[in-house]
Design brief:
Xylanolytic transcriptional activator regulatory domain-containing protein, zinc
Amino acid sequence: MMQQPQTFEYDLDPCDIDWNFPMNWLPYNNEIETNYCSILGLDGNATSAGPLDPSYINNQPVNQTTANVFAMDNTPQTISTIASISQRSVAAASPQLSGTSDRTVPGDLYATSSNGARRPCTARSKQLFPPPGVESCKQLRTISQDPRLRTESTDWAFPDLDHINIQDVEGFGESTLTEATYAEIYDSFENTCLESAIFRNEFISSEFPPLAVLDYCTKLFFEHFNPIFPLVHPNLTDLNADWILALAICAIGSQYSATEDIDACVRPLHEFLRRALVVRLQLENSAMNLALAQALVLNQVGLLYYGTSEFRRNDYQRVGDLQSVITLYWNSQLESDINTLPNQHESNVHEAWKTWVEGETLRRLSYFIWLLDRMGCYFFTDHHAVTFDVQEITLPRDDLWSQTCSSDWSQRYRRTEENPSLSSAVSTIFRDRTAKSDLGEFSRILLLHAVYREYSTVNTYCKRPLSSWMPQNNPDHHSEDSSALNLTESNWRNAALDCVDTLHWAANGTIALLLGAEHPTVLHLHFSRVVLLVPREMLMRLAKYMEASENMRKMASNQQKALQAEREISEWAQQDGSKARLAVLHCGCFLWHIRRYAKMAFYEPLCVFWAILTLWAYSVYSSKSRRSSGEERSGSVTRRPSPDHTKAISDDENPTFIRLDRPNDDEMVQLFVRAGVLKAYISGVGDIYAPTAPTRILREGRKILESVSLAWGRSTEYLDLLKALE
């Protein structure tokens, strides 16, 4: 018989918690005395507390009662003491974006069943292996088991794939590449990879994937990549019109084969494409056109997210070419008046549709370039942000893009209101907490990242040396108010969280329409709390230090930086505890999503890495404080709730723990974030406050990271970082 969790008691009376105060606006608590315990085993003089033996964390016994409960059953535990969901949460079922300016109140985002949002669902993402219609292939190994990822070979070559048998599969599409296009691709391969003296390393073999394999890769592209970020129109794009676009689509599609054989083509295909683009854009000085722009952007995302940092370095040299794509969009808008298209004669509707799709494709490419740049700011520590002029471009229109014939497009076009520009949309969502209700998923993701950018701009300004100085007509007078500056930065962060909640409302409505299934935008929304609330630079600095060689760790400057990182992380986990717990909560929601709805999108491996790093850091630097103070943070609560809360919770006993990676009632979320008094469990980990939890978080994280690193993130770089932290 399963043991029941022990009941504890703790008293929140001294905390004087205002349960009606908006959760996003909970303040930084400077009154908490931060416990600066180090896990680095260094001289603790730089901190206010002595060093903590690193073995302490890994050698403490697990609470046996708790461990047994969750080892026996991974299904959500039924807790009879949880208050029923507030009726006001039913509003979240609306598929429209929130039209209210009210900040988030209990029940807005975390309700589970009364409105269908985040309802427990047993759906799983589609398995890639065995691939349909492909025979005589080996299954792709995980990144920890793939020996190719541990070798540093500079030789380029395609494998021999003549043994692969590809059959026609019903519903998988007809052949798209012609013999003539294939011949053009191979001619370019010979010229740029076998016989060219321009590039440093020639390919050591003339082997090249057969037409059937490349054609299969195009189908994988349209099945897996294009639905997430639609950059190539599936109905109007002629892949045989320009072989370089066909090659780019093959390169991306080859990443989704889940076979060791075809995966061996991925890096050579991207390198071949990179060289072909260099020849076109720099040596031949070809004018930018739509197909060339699409090929460039697809190669850009492939180099950035497929493999290692060495692969990325080739990517950072293309700012001018990428800017040319955006310039091409603006020039195309000057040359044609898109708004007059539907008024043309009926016989010209098809041409009008094609013209609109070309303009929309350039719009999407321009925004995707901007999106890649913004993502790089928080994914990669070596990324240098670029200013791309896209803010005044109207947002993409998914409803029109999805039309499959000219007549449907024309009818829809006449009824559709034009989308706002990104700058207009971000201004509206900050000021009014609203957004256009029929924005597509691509536009909502763009808007979310624009919210990050607004906050990042303010945050960067507040860190400038002169930001707290007010210019005066008297040069001898100094006027500085750092407290007001800190308040400004904090308020912008809180406002950004409100904007995210507005978008999350719409996502919850979509989830309800899908009967509980979560769409890809949900991942971005949960991960947004990591972007906005977590000291990512300090986390990476600490992780890099712990991974470094012994000689590097002995350097005084590196030790000082590591200790400073620990200090800031400790302050985040303790003094900024409510925001840290909000981030941790959404990391748990992120794990729920990624385990069930992973789409093998290019951003998923890095999101997993940062979510796990966040959970690990909070587990380490908050639980040390709890062990030092001897506080217990689980059990029944003696509290003084507001009148509105009293009715909701007075009839039930209070919860003792929360499952972070399971749907939760809002009352539990409020209690966990505001007071931090619940034990917090994650499947495969147990209580994140337990002494052994940090190691278990890292191990579970590595397992999840490997599961989503079949198409993207084929590198041991981040796996090794997590391993170094154990």
